[in-house]
Amino acid sequence: MRTLHVIGIGVGDPDQLTVAAIRALNDTDVFFAMDKGERTADLVAVRRRICDRFIDDPDYRFVTLPDPVRAATAPDVDYRTTVAEWHDARAAVWAEAITTELPPDGIGAVLAWGDPALYDSTLRILDAVADRVALRYDVIPGITAIQALTAAHRIPLNDVGRPVLITTGRQLHPQALTGTTVVMLDGDCAFTACPPQTRIWWGAYLGSDDEVLVAGTVDAVAEKIVATRAAARARHGWIMDTYLLRPAPDLLRPAPDRPVA
Known about the structure:
- By secondary structure, this protein is of the alpha/beta class.
- The protein has 2 domains: 2-143, Tetrapyrrole methylase, N-terminal domain (Cobalt-precorrin-4 Transmethylase, domain 1, 3-Layer(aba) Sandwich); 146-246, Methyltransferase, Cobalt-precorrin-4 Transmethylase, Domain 2, CATH 3.30.950.
- It has 6 helices and 10 strands; from the N terminus they run βαβαβαβαβαββββαβ.
- The termini are far apart.
- Pathway: Cofactor biosynthesis; adenosylcobalamin biosynthesis.
């Protein structure tokens, strides 16, 4: 049966790779990567540099796969339906590549940005691939964008006795923050709708030489973040950013009571 490693590679700094990840790299015959075109070619290049740096035996192959274009969400189509169709198209591409490029007893790998368990579609897609190809896979965790963000800003993830919510910009409810909220995949800068004294710690290209950080209250830095983000995206052709929000102490809503055991 074919074997696939899903290897978390951190968010830009090769030094973030774990010993387990390096061991899995050296166990791999074929690496698979999605090619999203020229605008994100440097993301594939980072993966190649990681392999060049950490693999002792250069007798491996790198296979790039065309990434199906995700359809725009129409007003009368559910967002989840659009994503599910995109994942299914990706699964078909991956199944074909694994069948043709990886021998029946071969070992392949996918290098997942950050950690494979956090807002990444790899594991869901591989479950669909496994319905089409005899395949087993394991997961090697990686440093997440959340870890890189809090480390870069030198802040703890949580306030004492307060909850932590991890969500997307689409699902952010700016007026209902009850504690720390970490926001990922926000292309519309949803933080601009937060109360003015909400504290924000924002970062883009975390862990890389291009890392950009901004921190302050929303009323003081929101416009700066919007402008910085737009300029960086225009310069690089892509952006990966995340941010952490905390309401001002006088805006904190009571945390839900915990059930008594």
